[in-house]
Amino acid sequence: MRETGLNRRRFLAVGAATAVVAFDPLGVGWLTAADASPNGIPVPRLDGELVTDEAALAEAAEDYGQLVHERPRAVLRPGSVNDIAKIVTFAAAHGITVAMRGQGHAVHGQAQAGAGVVIDSRTMARVHSVSADRAVVDAGVTWSDLIKRTLASGLTPPVATDYIGLSVGGTLSVGGIGGAGSQHGMLVDNVIALEVVTGAGAVMTCSKTKNRELFDAVLGGLGQYAVIVRATVRLIPAKTTARVYNVTYDDLTSLLAAQRTAVADGRFSYLEGQVVPVEGGWDYLLEGVAYFTAPNSPDDAAMLAGLPEPKSTEIAEMSYFAWLDRITALVDQLRPLMFPNPWINLFLPDAATDAYVADLVSRLNPADVGGPILLYPVPRDRLTTPMVALPDSPTVFLFAMLRVVAPPNGDTVSRLLADNRAAYDAAVAVGGKQYPVSAIPVRPGDWRAHYGDRYSLALRAKARFDPHGVLTPGQHIFT
Predict the structure, then answer these.
(1) Cα(52)–Cα(73) distance, rounded to whole angstroms?
(2) What is the pLDDT of residues 378-423, one digit of tens each?
(3) Is the separation of the CB atoms in 164 and 143 below 8 Å?
(4) Which of 319, 151, 161 is nearest to 238 (CA)?
(5) Contact 209, 247 (CB under 8 A)
(6) What are phi and psi of 448, to 5 degrees?
(7) Which H or E element spans position 458?
């Protein structure tokens, strides 16, 4: 199995020379054993390490977006949940910000903590148990590793993001959406229980029947109320094979009509779509997948029945895991290149989707994208997590432009960030919301408008669970 986490013993050995032993509040800095200061406040004894070496700080100031670089003063490589609780408690007492970083796949500094502490969850990556309907995992486990483990028992999480190399804790903090959302909602809609460390340093378990306010706040809560350290996630029986239907249309209207038909009758296990640049314009692709185990294979004619007449149809077949893992190699190739990725992800109400997307695409230069443009529907009643803000619409469409600036160019990045802001404002004007994994320059009042009537709930949860306001400053929600 490919190792996506970190070997704890190896990391502790590397960081031993720069392990933090005290904090100097007057010098506003962390002290190693080699330092000396009469102002030093001893750091709690840890099972892991708090380090300040250059490599650790530089990594924690980076993410996949390559747009924001907020350097922390220390990185915690926890050896236990208690380590996280101790450091969060210490940070809260001394006004130090804290953020949890998983695989570093954020695009706009959301998991960074300038002059604070970044918790590296990769040293907490154990799958504790897999049973008939659930798995208990540490926050640093990747979905890829979890799925490999559950498939050995014939089980799978109901939903997967398109890239499964993400950490469990990271995705549950933002929502986690994928093509199976039309059947099962988001990843956060398939969580049974959590263990978290609140901003006050308390280790707590929560679920729909225990500490419900905390449970509802943390799932999709953007790291504002507690740090997820362990999750119990739902599992379902896994199929062995994926049959993929790529149905291409010349026009947006036909694609959206096809997607609405497919989402209404639930014919596909997985339903997405793409806007694809071609010479002279765009193609519009419906990507539907039927999961099955032989001999119960899908009827191709039935799967395509009632859809608008397409430009072309291609049908392919692969293993279930190969389908889920289809873009991992590409992401692994792109990550070391460190291209800027000013992504934008928006939820649009059904009634506004046609006009909004048509107008935006008509003005879009394919050279300003460089990555996929996604467009697909999800029934609103599948999305039940309170802190995930969504349009008031029976069906919502995810519209995402996963922009890549290659080669890197600062002027291009600035222009695309401004474009993202304009696209966001236009979406809000028609009742849309952002999916907060985006690179959108924040303005005062954005988050109040984003949460709407639920903003008072967010304020109450912040005051109760992170009273010192130290958690996840990179989201800029309560500044």
Answers:
(1) 7
(2) 999 999 999 999 999 999 999 999 999 999 999 999 999 999 999 9
(3) yes
(4) 151
(5) no
(6) -60, -45
(7) helix 455-465
